[in-house]
Amino acid sequence: MLFALALTFASIAFAQHWHHGRPHLNQHAHRALMSNATEDSFPTPNTSCDYWLENINHQGLSPFHGNPSSYQVFRNVKDYGAVGDGVSDDTLAINSAISSGDRCSPFNCESSTTTPAVVYFPAGTYLVSSSIIVFYETQLIGNPNCLPILKPSLDFKSPPGRIGIIDGDSYDPSGLLGFSSTNTFYRQVRNFIIDMTSFPASRSIRGIHWPTGQATSLQNIVFQMSDAPGTQHEGIFMEEGSGGFMADLVFEGGLNGANWGNQQFTMRNLTFSNAVTAINQIWDWGWTYKSVAINNCSTGLNMSSADPATGQLTVGSVTLIDSSIENTPIGVATARNVNSLPPTAGSLIIENVDFNNVASPVSGVSTPSINEISSRFGAGRAYTPDGHTIDGALEHLIRPTSLLQSDGRFYERSKPQYSTEPLEMFYSVRSGGARGDGVTDDTAALQRVINLAASLHKIVFFDFGIYRVTRTLYVPPGSRIVGESYPVILSSGRFFANMNRPQPVIRIGIPGDKGSVEWSDMIVSTQGSQAGAILIEINIESPPDSPTGLWDVHTRIGGFTGSHLQQVDCPKTPNVATPPAAVNRRCIAAFMAMHITKPAAGIYLENVWLWTADHDLDDPSGQNTQITIYTGRGLLIESQNGPVWL
Ligand SMILES: *[C@@H]1O[C@H](CO)[C@@H](O)[C@H](O)[C@H]1NC(C)=O
Ligand SMILES: *[C@@H]1O[C@H](CO)[C@@H](O)[C@H](O)[C@H]1NC(C)=O
Ligand SMILES: *[C@@H]1O[C@H](CO)[C@@H](O)[C@H](O)[C@H]1NC(C)=O
Ligand SMILES: *[C@@H]1O[C@H](CO)[C@@H](O)[C@H](O)[C@H]1NC(C)=O
Ligand SMILES: *[C@@H]1O[C@H](CO)[C@@H](O)[C@H](O)[C@H]1NC(C)=O
Prior knowledge:
Blueprint: H1 27-33, H2 52-55, E1 74-76, E2 85-89, H3 91-99, E3 117-121, E4 125-128, E5 132-133, E6 138-142, E7 149-152, E8 166-167, E9 187-195, E10 205-209, E11 216-224, E12 233-238, E13 245-252, E14 256-260, E15 264-273, E16 277-281, E17 286-295, E18 299-302, E19 317-326, E20 330-333, E21 347-356, E22 360-363, H4 370-373, E23 376-381, E24 389-393, E25 426-428, E26 437-441, H5 443-455, E27 459-462, E28 466-469, E29 473-475, E30 480-483, E31 488-491, E32 503-508, E33 518-526, E34 533-538, E35 548-557, E36 588-596, E37 603-606, E38 610-612, E39 630-637, E40 644-645
Parallel strand pairs: 1-3, 2-4, 3-6, 4-7, 5-8, 6-9, 7-9, 8-10, 9-11, 10-12, 11-13, 12-14, 13-15, 14-16, 15-17, 16-18, 17-19, 18-20, 19-21, 20-22, 25-27, 26-28, 27-30, 28-31, 29-32, 30-33, 31-33, 32-34, 33-35, 34-36, 35-37, 35-38, 36-39, 37-40
Antiparallel strand pairs: 21-23, 23-24
The structure holds 2-acetamido-2-deoxy-beta-D-glucopyranose (5 copies).
The site of one 2-acetamido-2-deoxy-beta-D-glucopyranose has 5 residues, from loops.
Signal peptide: 1-15
Keywords: Signal
Domain Rhamnogalacturonase A/B/Epimerase-like pectate lyase: 74-302, 426-495
C-alpha cells in the first residue's frame, strides 16, 4: 500500500560543501590555539556533558567500500564546520558531515551496506535553514548528557521534495521517495531536542520525516512545537514504509504531535501534551502503542481516516496498552461500524489505559461508555471459527505476573547508551587486535576482547567492521557489547556448514550460566553456504528484574557485499519450479536465525529484526533485485521458565 505524494520539482540543487578531516580539538589544544582568549572569558568545559562516544578513538572501517582507508564511519558535525551556537547556519556543514565520502544518497542510490555513518552532534544549538538529508545506513546521534538542539531559522525552507528538519527519506525529482520506503533499513536518530517554538505557528513545519522500513529507530527526542491556536507544526510525519520502532519521545504542542501511517510499528514511552491531535493515524496494517501518555490535547488518537474516493477505512488496527489519556475531550476517534469496509479495518484493542477527564474515551459511530471500556475493550473481528465481531468489554485477559513490572505494566527497558560511563570503561575490539576487514579470521581476537572485558566489567565497543568468524563466539554473563553503526559478525567456513550438526555463531551463555548480558546495535550474518549456522543462541538465565537485553541487534542472511549470497550467486527463478533436489546448496545460508533455549530465562528483545534477505541491498544495478536464499528456521523459543519479552 502506497500513499505516494504527487510532488513536482523545479530542480534539485544539493549544495555540497566538503570540509575534510579537520581534526577534532580537545579542550586543551583548543585553548592553546585560542591564545588571544583570556582564561576568564573562555568557557570552562561542562564535564557533565562528557560522552564516551564523542571521545573514543574512531577506528571504524568499511572494508567493502571502494576506498576503505579514506572512508570515515564516524563524523562529528563540528569537524565539518557546524558551529552549534544557535546563530550560525549549520545546514551545509551538517549535510556535508552526512554526505561526505561517496555515500548512498536518496537521489542516486537505492541502498548500500558499505557506506555506514555515525553522524555525531556534540552539545550545542544547531540552526538550520533547510532539511538535514539522511543518507542510507546513517545514525544521527546527539550527546545524551547535554542534548543538542536543532532549531529552524525563521526563513527555514526546504526545496521541493524535502520534508522536515530531519528528512529521513527525501523525494526525488520523479515524485517518488528516494529510497523506496519499505526498503529503507538500518537508520537511527537519537538524543535531540527539536525546537520549533520560535518558528511562526501559522507556517507548516515538521520535525522528522520518517517513511522507513525495518531495523530503524527513533529514541530520546523532544519535539517542541507551538501550541498557539491554529498551529501548523508537526513532530513526526510518516506516510508509508514497513517499520520499525520508536521509544522515549516527547511531543509538546503542535497541530499533530505525530501524523503517521506505515504498514506497522511498535512504539513505547511516548508523551504528548498541548497538541490539537496527539496522534493522527493516517493508515496502517497493525500498530502497537505501549506506555503512551496524552495530556491536554483536543483528540488523543484519531484512527478514523478513510480513503476520500471510496470511503474505505485506511487504518487496519491499533493496539493501545499500558497508557493514559487525560484532560482531552476525545480519547480515541474511530469510524468502524458493522458495515464499514474493509470488514476488519478499524480494529482496536484498549487494555490497561487510564482515562481521566476524557468526555469520550472512544468516539465514533458508537460511543461506548467509560464503564464499557473499563480496563479492556475491543472492536473488530475475533479470531474464532466464525470470525465473529467484537465490540465492547473484553473478558478473560490475564496478564502473567512474571511479565509485569511493579506498576503492573508490562516490563520495558530502553536501549542503554552508557551515558554516565567514563571512556576508560570501553574496550575497542579493533584496539584489541580484531581486524574487521571481512577477510581475516577474527574469532580468537574477538573472543579475547570479550573475555577480558567481561572479567574487568568493561564494555566491548565494536568499531564498525565486518568481523569474520569461523567458530562460535561465547558471550559470558556480565558482558555489555555495543556497536558503532551496525558492525557485522560474519560466520564463515566448514564449522557452520553441516545441517546435521548445527552450531551457534554467537552463544550468549552456556546452559547453567546465570547473569545478564546487554547487546545493542549489531548485525549477525553468514557467508556463503552455512546450512548449520544458528546465528544467535541464548542459553543464559537472567533475573527478571535485570534481564538479558538485545536492542537493535539484527540478523541479515544474504543480500549484501561480502555475503557471497548476492544476486549473481543466488538469483531468483520465478518461472522455474525448483524441486528439493535442485536447490542450490550454496544458497542454504543458515540453519536458524535465533534460538532461545530451554534454560534461557529473563530475555528482553527490542527492535530485533531477524531477516533473511529477499533482495540484494548492494545490487550493482541499483534495482534491489530479488534473490533466493534458504534459511531453515527463524526464531525458536524453548525457554521453560521465562520470562521472554519480544
Ligand atoms: C583572536 O584574534 C583574531 C584576530 O584579531 C580574531 O579574528 C579572533 O576572533 C580572536 N579570537 C578570539 C577567540 O577572540
Ligand atoms: C552543564 O551541566 C549541567 C549539569 O551539571 C546541565 O544542567 C547543563 O545543561 C549543562 N550545560 C550545557 C550547556 O549543556
Ligand atoms: C521515557 O522517556 C523519557 C524521555 O526520554 C525518559 O526520561 C524516561 O526515562 C523513559 N521512561 C522509560 C520507562 O523508558
Ligand atoms: C493546554 O493546551 C493549550 C494549547 O492547546 C495551552 O494553551 C494551555 O496552556 C495548556 N494547558 C496547560 C494546563 O498546560
Ligand atoms: C479525525 O481525522 C479526520 C480526517 O482523517 C477528520 O475529518 C476528523 O475531524 C478527525 N476527528 C477528530 C475527532 O479529530
